Task: inverse folding
């Protein structure tokens, strides 16, 4: 029995199905991570930090991350749709690892107030996202290209993270976390 090949139309429909799952899921996960962590301006601890001169306005982060999460979702959908492609399984695992790291950054920085731990985390995200981009590129070059703006933004975010650390060496103690009890023995 001869195996049937999918038509270009069938391939587009299959891709659209993956995209309709991946894009909203990644956007939702990113939104939940940010909301749980009370990310951005309006967070009393973050508002009290000294910010670097190249810090964009607060609205820019929401716009940038929304666009990046959509692009990441589209890239992942391309890879999920590339059934039978060599390296597909590894590429998906790499993507999921870097996404998990990405989603843990906001709680680490904004909720735990751990500036240097967040910096180490973003360095790890850059490395895993770089490996993901290479793996995606080998399967579908367009999927790899869709990851490039994310890598660029991660490098920019790492720069901001580092500069915030330099400007706020005792940032973790700037504003006590809500619910923490501090005992001071004199």
Result:
């Amino acid at each position: 029995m001869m195996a049937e090949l999918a038509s270009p139309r069938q391939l587009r429909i299959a891709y659209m199905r993956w995209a309709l799952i991946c894009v909203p899921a990644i956007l939702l996960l990113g939104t939940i991570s940010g909301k749980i962590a009370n990310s951005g301006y309006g967070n009393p601890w973050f508002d009290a930090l000294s910010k670097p001169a190249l810090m964009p306005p607060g609205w820019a982060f929401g716009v940038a991350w929304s666009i990046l999460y959509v692009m990441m979702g589209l890239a992942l959908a391309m890879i999920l749709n590339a059934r039978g492609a060599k390296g597909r399984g590894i590429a998906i695992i790499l993507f999921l690892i870097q996404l998990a790291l990405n989603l843990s950054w906001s709680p680490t920085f904004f909720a735990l107030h751990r500036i240097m731990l967040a910096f180490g985390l973003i360095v790890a995200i850059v490395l895993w996202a770089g490996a993901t981009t290479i793996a995606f590129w080998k399967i579908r070059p367009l999927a790899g290209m869709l990851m490039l703006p994310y890598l660029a933004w991660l490098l920019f975010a790492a720069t901001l993270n580092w500069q915030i650390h330099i400007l706020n060496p005792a940032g973790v103690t700037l504003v006590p976390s809500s619910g923490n009890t501090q005992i001071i023995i004199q």
